[in-house]
Design a protein that fits this description.
Length: 160
């Protein structure tokens, strides 16, 4: 998983190009707006949960890439996950999860993005995007708030 910066402008076209690249590599890829990612651990946990759901034949969606977005957003419905964590016209920072053993360099070139793993961090982001209230966020020290994003991932399994 890596972070990237670059223009999206047309989310459907970007997703289509990413899907073509992924198919050519024999992998799946998840693209998420990095404003919804609260650390590399958050994205990794979402991917691990999605792969496990696939192995256990308990996917809520049709693909492991979409399942990753569901877990990342902490949502049970695809439309809600896309609303929370999907790429948008104004997305400039993107989290990329490649499900397979392929380097992201080719995808970055294809999408004309630059690698920037700093966008995966939680600094300056609001957990409200994941539905965490200010009251909930105040229950943990500021440096532990990304753990609330991990909790959203874990709770999704309980609510399935």
């Amino acid at each position: 998983m890596v972070g990237a910066t670059g223009p999206v402008r047309d989310p459907e076209a970007v997703l289509g190009r990413a899907a073509l690249w992924a198919r050519s590599q024999g992998v799946e890829v998840t693209l998420a707006d990095a404003r919804s990612v609260f650390g590399a651990d958050h994205a990794m946990s979402a991917a691990i949960h999605a792969v496990r759901a696939m192995r256990e034949k308990s996917l809520s969606s049709r693909t492991v890439s979409m399942e990753t977005l569901l877990y990342l957003a902490g949502q049970r419905q695809v439309t809600d996950a896309i609303r929370v964590a999907g790429i948008r016209k104004d997305s400039e920072a993107i989290a990329i999860v490649i499900h397979g053993d392929v380097a992201p360099d080719g995808l970055l070139v294809e999408l004309e993005w630059s690698r920037d793993d700093r966008v995966l961090g939680s600094e300056g982001k609001s957990l409200a995007v994941l539905g965490t209230t200010a009251r909930e966020a105040a229950t943990v020290p500021r440096d532990r708030r990304p753990d609330l994003a991990l909790e959203k991932v874990a709770v999704l399994d309980v609510n399935k």
